[in-house]
Amino acid sequence: MTAPARILLADDHALVRHGVRLILDNEPDLTVVAEADDGAEAVAQARSTDIDLAILDIAMPRQTGLQAARELSRLRPELHILILTMYDNEQYFFEALKAGASGYVLKSVADRDLVAACRAAIRDEPFIYPGAETTLIRKYLDRAQQGDALPAKPITEREEEILKLVAEGHTSKEIGDILFISAKTVERHRANLLQKLGLRDRLELTRYAIRVGLIEP
Amino acid sequence: MTAPARILLADDHALVRHGVRLILDNEPDLTVVAEADDGAEAVAQARSTDIDLAILDIAMPRQTGLQAARELSRLRPELHILILTMYDNEQYFFEALKAGASGYVLKSVADRDLVAACRAAIRDEPFIYPGAETTLIRKYLDRAQQGDALPAKPITEREEEILKLVAEGHTSKEIGDILFISAKTVERHRANLLQKLGLRDRLELTRYAIRVGLIEP
DNA sequence: TCGAACATGGGTGTCAGCACCTATGGACGC
DNA sequence: GCGTCCATAGGTGCTGACACCCATGTTCGA
């Protein structure tokens, strides 16, 4: 028997983190050796601690789990990453895969499924949450075959900044005043965001920002 | 030593539920005897099971924790209710108190705090999450002294219907077509909603609807 | 060094959101 | 019966959102 897999657990809710830790530590082949409150801390922990698997929540302050996943898979390509989230959402799923995650698990699954997902991730097998494999994987493969696996252009830092302010309810003029640019430029960025994300208006931008944890409802 | 307090735990995420259950069952004076996936099931469980304390998440499908709390405190006024949520939000806090909850705890607290909150709720002492007592309680008492503890007019069924559709991103005309009324009437209801809830525009209505669990992000 | 990507900003036009105003008809309680 | 609340609906007017058009300066990698 080999040593248990060393896990980093990142979730901004201490209660959830502690509960999941109890579940995982109960397994002989899994052990949680680090915890993180947010994405930035998760990256820092992964740099300083020897871990095999990172379990990342999506909605976290400072840096979302998806952002952390992108950074971690760039810094340490051999690290296994599991996204653990409450959002049963196709767009997230694709973003998670693009960010280098090998698994996507909902918080609504049973604990046995989480443990199975951890083991699959460690063996480098993809694991998608139960009930979604068929449609989601099929769509993903369809896109991949068309050479179109990563269709979405990444949004820039400035755009993310604008996105956050738009989603918080500020008008173009207000945002312009905050960032010391013209309202026109704000609208330019907003239009680019709508186009890149395939959304219709500020309202959908808001829901998107809430989904990815950029702002609180 | 008396028998442990019997607890109902309602959260739509099985993982979270299981983790919290492990935390609570570890305490000799607390025992989780029932679980629920959503607000409606929580009410059903509370009817059929003998419990002392209900721990309710806010964001749950079918019926939010706040709605369930209102119903439970009407059905069984002697039942202790604890709201456990990820939302550090003043409006929620007041709504929780109005709904009959004696405690409001964030998921970001440590497990010791959750256990303490359970014990406080069972002893019928109010428990507010650490760090917020001063401002929140003060505001609440200020309002109560002005005889203004429940300032908000309740929104009607029709308004809630409109709210949901607005928050989902439909235009007035679309909503009118869906409900077979004129766009003008939709705007009338929307204006009433804005006024009753003290909000500024559709975007804030959307965030409100997400907060109270009326729609998903 | 040349092009691509990015941030900047201007113009024009349409339309939906929202704030005011008005009114009517039904239900319900006092 | 009379007032109150609710749902219905119309008018007017302003303004922000959004879709198109356009150009300029910087930076950075091929």
Automatic annotation (TrEMBL), chains A, B:
| Pfam families on file | GerE (PF00196), Response_reg (PF00072)
Protein's UniProt keywords contain Lipoprotein: no
State the Gene Ontology terms under molecular function.
Answer: DNA binding
Q: Is the keyword Transcription in the record?
A: yes
Q: Which InterPro entries does the UniProt entry name for this protein?
A: CheY-like_superfamily, NreC/VraR/RcsB-like_REC, Sig_transdc_resp-reg_C-effctor, Sig_transdc_resp-reg_receiver, Tscrpt_reg_LuxR_C, WalR-like
SUPFAM superfamilies listed in its UniProt record: C-terminal effector domain of the bipartite response regulators, CheY-like
This protein's name = DNA-binding response regulator, NarL/FixJ family, contains REC and HTH domains
Q: What top-level branch of life does the organism fall under?
A: Bacteria
Residue(s) carrying 4-aspartylphosphate = 57
Q: CDD domains, alphabetically? A: LuxR_C_like, REC_NarL-like
Residues of the Response regulatory domain:
6-122
User: What region holds the HTH luxR-type domain?
Assistant: 148-213
Name the Gene Ontology biological process terms.
Answer: phosphorelay signal transduction system; regulation of DNA-templated transcription
User: What does the UniProt keyword field contain?
Assistant: DNA-binding, Phosphoprotein, Transcription, Transcription regulation
Instruction: Tell me the organism's taxonomic lineage.
Output: Bacteria, Bacillati, Actinomycetota, Actinomycetes, Kitasatosporales
